[in-house]
């Protein structure tokens, strides 16, 4: 029998107020960090420090891991209609004060990005995107014969939103990644609001996709969700991921928020995959554990400050990042830096045209990982 969201937490033995799991005191964020440090993180992934895929070096919070263990039973054999998926959808809707029909779950946000391009673009309705930015939308467009209007980032490594607006008339979809991947830069709510209104004023049938995959890492004083725009405009929708701050990349869970008709069009254009029972439990627990997400943001900021500071000391500039990665200006092709780092078992990001001859993306791992990685960077760059 499925339970309500409240019943789920009771069944799992989780008390967010008391900080207990099954009657056992959980690790506080500081104790969790100390435990991670005690492990020394010396057993890196296959001997490689993985700083190329924007995954979490700290992993899910302790409540999430306990919830997965609590629910790993023979019940997973009854998973064609997975438990807790409706509860996850309800929790997201409740948190953002929207209806469940305004939320679409998927097996990772990739399906949502691919579905949006297929739903709203065609040979007569191009995609408008940036370069470099997260490339799934562009890749899907090119695979399906959809024209692409690609606008390079400006000199500050930010989306050139005025130029994107200028080429959006008649477009099927405008893709705005905020915070942007790979640059990590952001635009504030007033700028996003102005941009969306300008697009829809001149091209009311165009859809606007706000990708907020990294927003949990952003400085609230500099970036806020565009959710209100999805309630005002039928053609605006948001996607988010549980792969970043929630550290559930291996579980593959993403979601979109927007008008039911818009979400239905995305779902109808492309398969969304299935969110598994354990994936839903993990995502539901993590989504409710706001204390841990705040700790994750602060810890990421600490690691980022350490890494950026080391690179600055070596004479290299890094645009202000609001993500779990940085985009360092090497003043040289990324390829040589990447190969030299890999020779010392540190993997950094791939090329990001048209900035591949100057910038390299470095994902931020745990502090223990970055201490080792920075020593490699000093050796390679110094």
UniProtKB/TrEMBL annotation:
Belongs to the class-I pyridoxal-phosphate-dependent aminotransferase family. The keyword Mitochondrion does not apply. Its cofactor is pyridoxal 5'-phosphate. This is Aminotransferase. Its EC number is 2.6.1.-. It is an enzyme of class 2 (transferase). InterPro entries: Aminotransferase_I/II_large, HistidinolP_aminotransfase, NHTrfase_class1_PyrdxlP-BS, PyrdxlP-dep_Trfase, PyrdxlP-dep_Trfase_major, PyrdxlP-dep_Trfase_small, TAT_signal. It comes from OM182 bacterium.
